[in-house]
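During the reporting period the student researcher (J.K.) took over the structure-prediction task from the postdoctoral fellow and processed the backlog of single-chain submissions. One of the processed entries is reproduced below for the supervisory committee.
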Amino acid sequence: MSLRLSTVILPVHRWHEGGRERWQGAEELGFHAAYTYDHLSWRTFRDGPWFGALPTLTAAATATERLRLGTLVTSPNFRHPVTLAKELISLDDISGGRIILGIGAGGNGFDATTLGQEAWTPRDRADRFGEFLPLLDRLLTEDAVSHTGTHYSADEARNIPGCVQHPRLPFAVAATGPRGLKLAARHGQAWVTTGDPKLYEEGTPEQSVEALRGQVEKLGKACADTGRDVAELDKILLTGFTPDRGRPLESVDAFVDFAGRHQELGFTEIVVHWPIPDSDFAADQAVFEKIATEAPGQLA
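J.K. obtained the following structure tokens:
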């Protein structure tokens, strides 16, 4: 399978001041998909502009025709499966069936406490995700759903007519732990990772490749345990969080080398950040565009 190249566009630009042009540019450059982060604020961007993911994707859906669109990633931190399902069905309809839902358990960043709650422990996040994802699956595939759970409930929630994509829009499940990988195996059409965060500061690219190899093997075991062929899942690497950092975007050759090493591990999609000057995602725009247009042909 040819390696797909996608981009993630952070929601930091006003729509009429560069936002629209970036999403349209992603389609013109031939990216497979364009994603955005689903946060209320994020890291060093907290005190600057930051717009909502689903309204941004709705606008992007009306400004593009072929580009697949999605979140990397949505989480239970500030969402409920009933309301999220209604928004996703609407978005899938507006886009003509081009939506991918990247989804994970969430983390302990600003989203974890911005609604005034105490930050959940890793176990709490795993427990909530274990209930959130199966319920969301049902809400997107059944006309009416009732559920009484520990963390989430639904009382005859109606979701007619359902998604344009059947049986529902695809889930790209972000996970590295055993419980999350099991959810990916059961409910995912794709799996997402950013690598091993422990290696980001002092690890080497070689160590990162080995860590990712281990994650892929654990995904394979989770699939085998649930009676599923791991080849059925796309495997997505969101770049920028491995020890390589921004080096793969320094040239076409550097990117092809980086992507090729990860393609050998079984990854089917590589996601790169649209350049943002004066940030961790700074890169030469001309080189970025050259990678988008030239690298996929070398990785076929």
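The committee noted the following: The mean pLDDT is 97.
J.K. will present the remaining backlog at the next meeting.
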